[in-house]
Amino acid sequence: MLLFYTLWGGLLFEAPRLNILNETIRNLHFHVPMWFGMLILLAVSVVNSIRYLGKSLHHAPFDFWAVESVNTALIFGILGLLTGMVWAKFTWGSYWSNDPKQMGAAVGLLIYFGYLLLRNTLEDEQQRGRISAVYSIFAFVIYIVFIFILPRLTDSLHPGNGGNPGFNAYDLDSKLRLVFYPAVLAWTLLAVWITSVRVRLQKLKHQLLEID
Description:
The protein is mainly alpha-helical. It has helices at about 1-10, 30-55, 60-90, 100-120, 125-155, 175-210.
């Protein structure tokens, strides 16, 4: 599906001729949808963390969805960061320019790596679920601040931040949207599917441990 949308955008539609960006604008269909998928999964993790804390008996599947959403989100986040660095090389002149958006994204990923490290240090299942659930909620709030709020308050090279116009200001004929929106849906569905497979594996492991 992802390949189809990519070929669809490359063969049937001409990319808008934007200054500096030129053909690299096609990276919009990879870089941004990956981040959409990541953010949706992080939101899923927060929702299930809250549901886990709200249960007096701490229902294990909520914890499975919380942690596996983060695992998949980190993969998408890393891919999004790498595709963004490649794009930055062509548009800004270097892979890493300490842009507030880049720095915020990197720090946010490190915060969530800390979430996984924290879980691995706790042996008791319910304690691990409760503490990591609280961590997940605060981590999501901090991440939103780092990648959406702070870049808008400071000078930034990133489109849509630091006073720079977003891509919607250039896409006057809506050519980008014809591929971009399906790409967002496709990457998000892929992220949810990967997470659901990992959750099913976690449930099977849990059931086997209970049998033993």
